[in-house]
Amino acid sequence: MSSSSESTATESTTAANHEIVVVLSANLHARPAGRLAKAAAGFTSSVQLEYAGRTVNPTGVLAVMGLGATAGATVTVRAEGPDADQAVAALADILATAE
Amino acid sequence: MSAPVGIVLVSHSAELAKGLGSLVQQIGSDDVPLATAGGTDDGRIGTSYHLVLAAIRHADRGGGVVVLPDLGSSVLTARAVLEDNPRSDITIVDAPFVEGAVAAVVTAASGADLQTVANAAKEARHVLKL
After folding, report:
1. Active-site residue B58, yes or no?
2. Alpha-carbon gap, residue A32 to A12, rounded angstroms
3. Most exposed residue of A2, B56, B75, B84, measured as fewest CB within 10 angstroms of its CB?
4. Confidence band, pLDDT 50/70/90 cuts, at residue B2
5. Is A34 inside any structural domain?
């Protein structure tokens, strides 16, 4: 028995929802992806990274690298949950200052 | 935070294991207990029961150990070591060697438990590179 429904999204939520658009300072390669994954795991909010129409969970370092986002590209960081604000700020900082 | 999960890289080649170890520590963290067992006891291509056992002991800091073999006899040797030293908190993971090691170390560095680290390595098989 398995449900094919994915309709658990709630219309209205009391949890904070934050989003920041960041221009990458460097290619989103292995080292910044690693930093991003470690940082993302430290928040309770659910976090997403969106680039070129693809959305990945930034705790997955391989998925982040697989985005193939390069320096100058625009990436959206999104978080939903009690610490969404801090999560988005922390991840955006890593993306904007990566070398 | 509880003790970090340790990672053991088992390869036929000491250079391959050591090189991958350096890579994952750069991407992940050098705080994660990491040990490599590459090549035979006398430095040839192959695997060594003793080196695998020593690597597991080195990486074991109380949080459990994930063992990643490259292929073939690395798997057999790692299995033999674990059969002789059965522990519920030491597990061999079937994962791509490079990607699995990166995922495991980064996940371990975030403080995740043994099962989460092992799953991250396994999932590496399904993450597209391109």
Report:
1. no
2. 34
3. A2
4. confident
5. yes
